[in-house]
Amino acid sequence: MIEANLLLQYNAEILNVEKDTSIFDYGSKAQFYFQIKSGEVKMNNINRGGKEFIQGIFYAGQSFGEPPLFVDVSYPAGAEAITDAEIYRLPKSDFFNLLQQHPEAHFKLSEVLASRLYYKAIMASEISSQDPEHRIIRLLDYTKKYIQKMETYETLQVDLTRQQIADLTGLRVETVIRACKALEKMGKLKIRKGKIFR
After folding, report:
1. Which residues form the Cyclic nucleotide-binding domain (predicted)?
2. Phi-psi map region of 193: left, alpha, beta (phi>0 left; psi -120 to 50 alpha)
3. Nearest CA to 37 among 5, 70, 75, 9?
4. Is 77 in contact with 43 (CB distance < 8 Å)?
């Protein structure tokens, strides 16, 4: 994403966020650009029944929560640290100045946002119509290609928990466990010592 020295040059501060701490809440006004220096962050919604739906999980070097900055709306999801994290926080006006003065950073951000939009479009159709096994494979393949930047022939050790896979695909944990066992029998993934490999 945006180089750390550039963020700091434009007045970014580094937040130290403890695990399970909220970074921003659903419905709050977007006022900052966030980029992870270390740790993991999830963006999520909680429905009326208390079930969590994870919109995305973000890792070191990735940004999160940018779209509302561009359209001046409130956050459609909350953000929370999954682990202890260090996060660059850059005020909106400084962020826009950075993008105007560094078009290469703007282009890179546009590329990332387009990739996320593509993922959302795919997952929306998967969740509405596909069986659990298909949803899980699509999620793992997206993670492998776009998050971990791995080649098809390489083996991904999935660092998502069964609960996170469920929350990312709109499934129940029990369904994820059954579907993963079925996928292993089909030869589409391997499970070793509780870890999933694709």
Report:
1. 1-116
2. left
3. 5
4. yes
Region of residue 29 (left: phi > 0; alpha: psi -120 to 50; beta: else): beta
* CA end-to-end distance (rounded Å), the chain: 26
**Which domains occur in the chain, in start order?**
4-102 (2.60.120.10), 130-197 (1.10.10.10)
Residue 102: which residues within 8 A CB-CB, separation 6 or more? 6
- Is the model's pLDDT at 47 over the cut of 80? no
Max mean pLDDT among 48-57, 86-95, 124-133 falls in: 86-95
Identify the three-state secondary structure at position 108.
Answer: helix
pLDDT score at 129: 64
- Assign residue 42 a region: left if phi > 0, alpha if psi is -120 to 50, beta otherwise? beta
> Which amino acid, residue 110?
S
- pLDDT, mean of residues 131-142: 90
Question: Using an 8 Å Cβ cutoff, are 114 and 18 in contact?
Answer: no
Predicted structure pTM score: 0.73
- pLDDT category of residue 80 using cuts at 50, 70 and 90: very high
d(CA 86, CA 14): 6
Average pLDDT over all residues of the chain: 91
